[in-house]
Specification:
- By secondary structure, this protein is α/β, with parallel strands linked by helices.
- It is 45% helix and 16% strand.
- The protein is built from 25 helices and 24 strands.
- The strands form six sheets. A seven-stranded parallel sheet has the order 12-11-10-15-16-17-18. The protein has a six-stranded parallel sheet with strand order 21-20-19-22-23-24, sandwiched between helices. A five-stranded parallel sheet has the order 3-2-1-6-7.
- A hairpin with a 2-residue loop joins strand 8 and strand 9.
- It starts with a strand and ends with a helix.
- 40% of the residues are buried.
């Protein structure tokens, strides 16, 4: 066994590591650390390789229990109550992804120490205090290397992707800077487009929450034809961000709402409420004896390792919530909103809207926005994803088809389900009719789900990278075809596809901004991961489609069972799969028939979904 081990997590200074003696065994705690060490040719072992199925089960239980229960003591719960709303509950989704890697690292550290039985542990991690407490209990000497930075929430950074001509650009900025830019942009938009519009606050209105108006162009047209005002409230992304969205907005009869316009007259009231709330939390945060047992594993507390980052996260996010809740309360009290349409009710901003709407007795409708995984595996984290295995907040759910309704019913949902079809796919039929192949292969990358311990390990991220590399390699075997990478719009801070493609071949084209329908309608083949919704987009357009299943649960989805896509789970099968889907006409026709049968079951009211949903919303 090694007498000295070094635990490394996201190192910012490599000089210490490079000077270490060879008899010190280095362990990485996550994929990003592994990448850094590999890049700098520093020999190490992957700590996560020591975890087994039992460990992953324990980690999942720990981070889920902590996320939903840490504030459940009466004394703590009272501190987080604001206007009858539990503010701690609003950020559960992001806190689950904050706690999961922390608890995973805790178990990795414990396993490394159990295996190596070292005499000395050098810790260069976010969890230095936990490591010291653990080692003290085992009489192991520790050396702690201070780390700069703290763990953060997923949306503390905003990743903006676009193409400058043919050059793909991916910029990451802070959440606060993004919100500043957004506020300035919204003021300009309001002055330009809204200042001349007279909003009748007494007339019935439909509030559309955080929708991409390019993707839901057809729905916006149908809503604009109603005898109701259409109000657009986008809290995370601007309503107008490019020429296409500007044209769509100008064509339709709708108004952009901006909460900051209401804030001008309520600044002093909001600031006072925020100050009073944070003062109450300051008293709470100082009660270490309250939090030490809540955040602990096997009686060893990790509270002091996470205390600073956790307090900063809660204070900043809940301060935002107070401001928005006050403004939403004013908005709902002064406007005649008949119904609210949303699609992502687990986000902090959506939860705020839905909670305030309930106080004002405003009905809410959640529109299905993607294919729901049907594997029972997802029941484990149902609280943090939009699946029916956990109760939803919205009053009504608008579904894409009868198969999703049947899935919802299997979990006890029998009321308030309405099958409208998918409005975002209404324009796909005309693209399918005009389809002409253009010799391109589209690789639409998603990312490792990272939602649970076993699907967020270094091995999983390396597997994703290897599958991408293999697709790029195989594509070169078909020089008559051009490979285009379409990254998922979600942030990819861990698996950075742009960096990976530049490493593989800088000449490969990367496309961020082209509308999905236009990009894939005429391609020869689309390849994606884990049955991403773009696989459904693809088969709707008549495109041969491959889904690379890097996570086991994906093999259980309905689209795979229907053989509507070619499902590949082994990297060694990629070359033959691509070749067959490109050139085997018999297989392509068979897959097309399977896809058509699946679509018939999965999507109702094709081409008419926007009209159906609009008619439903008009009943409120």
């Amino acid at each position: 066994m090694n007498t000295e081990i070094l635990l490394v997590e996201d190192p910012t200074d490599l000089n210490y590591l490079l000077k270490l003696e060879k008899n010190v065994q280095i362990y990485s705690l996550n994929y990003s650390t592994h990448k850094i060490l590999v890049k700098n040719r520093i020999n190490h072992k992957i700590g996560e390789d020591l975890l087994d199925v039992t460990d992953h089960t324990k980690i999942n239980k720990e981070f889920i229990d902590t996320t939903i229960n840490w504030y459940n003591l009466d004394y703590i719960r009272q501190k987080f109550n604001f206007n009858g709303i539990n503010l701690a509950n609003l950020i559960e989704l992001e806190l689950s992804q904050y706690f999961m890697p922390i608890y995973k690292s805790v178990y990795v550290i414990k396993k490394i120490i159990e295996k190596e039985k070292p005499s000395k542990v050098i810790s260069y991690t976010y969890l230095n205090d936990f490591v010291e407490r653990l080692c003290n209990a085992k009489n192991i000497q520790t050396i702690l290397i201070n780390k700069s930075g703290q763990p953060s929430l997923q949306y503390d950074k905003i990743n903006i992707k676009y193409n400058l001509g043919s050059i793909p650009i991916s910029i990451t900025i802070s959440r606060s800077f993004f919100l500043q830019i957004k506020r300035i942009g919204e003021k300009i938009i309001h002055f330009t487009f809204n200042s001349k519009k007279k909003l009748d606050t007494t007339k019935k209105s439909i509030l559309v929450l955080d929708f991409n108006i390019v993707q839901y162009n057809e729905l916006l047209k149908e809503l604009s034809s109603l005898d109701k005002q259409i109000l657009l409230l986008n809290q995370r992304r601007p309503v107008i961000w490019n020429l296409q969205s500007l044209r769509i907005f100008k064509k339709n009869r709708c108004t952009i709402l901006n909460l900051s316009e209401l804030q001008n007259e309520m600044n002093s009231q909001i600031a006072e409420l925020q100050s009073t709330f944070l003062q109450g939390l300051e008293e709470l945060w100082n009660k270490n004896n309250l939090f030490e047992p809540i955040f602990s594993v096997d009686s060893v507390s990790l509270w002091h390792s996470i205390k600073n980052s956790f307090i900063m996260i809660c204070n900043s996010r809940l301060k935002e919530s107070i401001s928005r809740i006050v403004l939403l309360d004013k908005l709902f009290a002064t406007h005649n909103i008949s119904v609210i349409l949303e699609w992502a009710e687990l986000g902090q901003e959506e939860k705020e809207v839905l909670n305030v709407a309930k106080k004002h007795n405003i009905p809410t409708v959640m529109l299905q926005h993607a294919m729901y995984p049907t594997s029972k595996y997802w029941d484990l984290v149902a609280r943090f994803v939009l699946f029916f295995s956990h109760s939803l907040i919205s009053d009504h759910q608008a579904l894409w088809g009868e198969s999703t309704k049947k899935h919802a019913s299997s979990y006890g949902y029998s009321k308030n389900l309405v099958v409208t079809g998918s409005p975002r796919h209404d324009g796909f039929l005309e693209h399918k009719t005009a389809r002409k192949t253009n010799g391109t292969i589209i690789l639409a990358t998603t990312q490792v789900s990272g939602i649970t311990s076993e699907y967020s390990t270094t091995d999983m991220y390396v597997k994703f990278d290897d599958f991408v590399r293999e697709v790029c390699r195989v594509s070169k075997l078909f020089p008559e075809k051009k490979l285009i990478i379409k990254p998922h719009p979600a942030p990819n801070f861990i698996n950075n596809v742009i960096e990976l493609i530049r490493e593989i071949d800088p000449k490969i084209s990367i496309n961020h901004t082209v509308d999905v329908k236009s990009l894939i309608a005429n391609c020869d083949l689309l390849i994606t991961f884990n049955n991403s919704t773009i696989a459904l987009d693809s088969i709707m357009l008549g495109v041969p489609t491959i889904s690379l299943q890097i996570e086991k649960w994906a093999e259980e989805n309905d689209i795979v069972k229907a053989n509507a896509v070619l499902s590949i789970s082994k990297i060694s099968d990629i070359e033959n799969g691509m070749r067959c889907m490109l050139y085997d006409e018999e297989l392509r026709n068979k897959m097309k028939n399977n896809a058509d049968n699946f679509l018939g079951m999965y999507l109702s009211n094709r081409g008419l979904a926007s009209k159906k949903l609009s008619e439903f919303l008009d009943t409120f």
